UniProtKB/TrEMBL annotation:
Alphabetical UniProt keywords: Disulfide bond
Keyword Disulfide bond on entry: yes
PROSITE patterns for this protein: IG_LIKE
SUPFAM superfamilies documented for this protein: Immunoglobulin (SSF48726)
Gene, per the UniProt record: AVEN_29991_1
Domain Ig-like: 56-151
Keyword Membrane assigned: no
Entry protein name: Ig-like domain-containing protein
């Protein structure tokens, strides 16, 4: 058979193209031993291969940092992280305490992660730092952070009307 090896050459039921073995082994019985070695290879599951290298996040930003917050009034915090492959994981902190309930959304291009968190500030949070950390879990030490020093105001009790009078 001119186009490849047949079962007559290798004692196998396969037809192998001739270039498959020529660079790897000399002709004869050694070629058959080499083929049997290939035939007994096993696939071992591992992490999915995307064909692309892992890249750490290059930027992280908390949106609307300049606003003051009212105690006991829920506010949505938004943080965007970009450049990471695979997409970055976002974690929120107040001081050193992690905040739970982050909802993440990944852009259709896959390179921007948006983390949203509903936060209910207390007067004790005044002056603390809220931080957003973006991290590629496949790259140890890849975390980058953006911080915001929180300004929390007390709101007057419900139904209490404050009036200012100029004398």
């Amino acid at each position: 058979m001119a186009s490849g090896f047949s079962s007559q050459n290798l004692d196998t039921p396969f037809s192998i193209p001739p270039l498959f073995f020529l660079p790897f082994s000399p002709p004869g019985p050694r070629r058959r031993i080499l083929f049997e070695g290939f035939a007994h290879c096993q696939w071992v599951p591992g992490p999915p291969f995307t064909g692309l290298p892992s890249v750490p996040p290059v930027e992280v930003q908390i949106e609307e940092k300049k606003r003051a917050l009212s105690a006991q009034k829920p506010v949505e915090l938004v943080c965007r992280a970009g450049g990471s492959r695979p997409p970055a994981n976002i974690t929120w902190f107040i001081g050193n305490q992690p905040l739970k309930g982050t909802k993440e959304k990944i852009s259709s291009e896959g390179n921007i992660t948006t983390g949203r968190l509903i936060f209910i500030p207390t007067i004790e949070d005044r002056g603390k730092n809220i931080s957003c950390r973006a991290e590629n879990m496949l790259i140890p030490g890849s975390a980058i952070t953006d911080e915001w020093k929180v300004d929390v105001h007390c709101s007057p009790p419900f139904g209490y009307d404050i009036q200012y009078q100029i004398l």
